[in-house]
Amino acid sequence: MRSPKDFFRPLAVGAPTPVREVPFRPSRMIHFFDPGNEKMAAKVPAIAPTVDVLLGNLEDAVAADRKEAARSGLVKIATSTDFGDTQLWTRINSLDSPWALDDLLTLVTEIGDKLDVIMVPKVEGAEDIHYVDRLLAQLEAKARIDRPILVHAILETATGVANVEEIAGASPRMQGISLGPADLAASRRMKTTRVGGGHPGYLVREDPHGPDGAAPRATFQQDLWHYTLARMVDACAAHGILPYYGPFGDIKDTTACEDQFRNAFLLGCVGAWSLHPVQIDIAKRVFSPAPADVAWARRVIDAMGDGTGAVMIDGKMQDDATYKQCQVVAQLADALAARDPELRDAYAAAESQQSQVQQNKE
Asked: Of the candidates 314, 325, 290, 277, which has an alpha carbon nearest to the alpha carbon of residue 33?
């Protein structure tokens, strides 16, 4: 077993020092694109400023005979595009594929200075992260990259779920974990062909009622992914990394997509994947705290002072626990406002309005 003191030492001579804390940058949506598709590639400069994360996808959505074209396309896009404040990620091919090694060898040495995060699919245990960790350190040293490229795991096998805690803590490079519902459903032998979301057959039914129990009984559709998502969020929180919902495959059902994203946001996720431009605005809206909620959070923080004790605000008790909850909302709002001028103005207007209401009451 390695000493804990060695955990934050580079795994290769000349590699950058590992991070001690995952830098929080807005990542409400991880927008996927196929870098080997010339039509999609041409839209990258226009899309980049509208998203928090732009991800060049090399894995399952790219046919086997187009893998090399996608990889070289990502290199070309990365070298020719100014991404500004938008993060550039990539999803490499799975570690058991014939393309993963070349993905890492090519991308780190040719555009490693542009890549913020490498997403690794079908991670099943800490050993997968250890392999990528060591290889990245060697390649970073070779390419003379001065900051570590972070790693994001996709949770999409039953074994991965069983080992999610050790995956989350496997390396200082770990940036976060995403739920991968489609592959996970296949791994578990779940009887659904949906990519994310609920299922009409997965439900609860109210108890019998009425004369002789014969009255119609309401049913309520349940969330197939609640257990997995909650466990993933806990593992991420325990290790100081970030949880994400993953994909919602029914592009046309924007209502259900927004519901799923909001459930994930309320549960602790910081973002989700967007597979189509229509999902970008949904993710931006859902994973940004509402202006009224931010104004309330700041009001509680101001009233609580150092965060100890308890106060009554509008007939509701606020104590150190709610103070901490409000800090989460306010800090997220600050990070988003620094990137999004429209949000900044909306938050300022809501705080001003709340302040005016309070003055009128007094």
From this structure: 277
Distance CA 221, CA 204 (A): 7
Give pLDDT, residue 263.
95
Structure tokens at 37: 């598709």
Amino acid symbol at 168:
A
Distance of alpha carbon 184 from alpha carbon 258, whole angstroms: 21
Give me Rg for the CA atoms of the chain: 22
pLDDT digits (tens, 9 = 90+) for 150-171: 999 999 999 999 999 999 999 9
Residue 308 clears pLDDT 90, i.e. is over it: no
Cα diameter, the chain: 78
- 97's CB contacts (< 8 A; 6+ apart) are none
Whole-angstrom Cα distance, residue 35 to residue 117? 16
**What pLDDT band is residue 84 in, cutting at 50, 70 and 90?**
very high
Check whether 362 has a pLDDT greater than 70. Answer: no
Name which of 138, 147, 93, 142 is nearest 116 in CA terms. Answer: 147
> Rounded distance, CA 216 to CA 231, Å?
35
Distance of alpha carbon 184 from alpha carbon 161, whole angstroms: 9
Asked if 126 and 235 count as a contact pair (C-beta separation under 8 A), the reply is: no
Give how far Cα 331 sits from Cα of 253, 325, 334, Å: 31, 10, 5
Residue 134 confidence (pLDDT) above 80: yes
Q: How many CB atoms lie within 10 A of CB 51?
A: 23
Ranges of beta strands (E only) in 60-169 are: 87-91, 117-120, 150-155
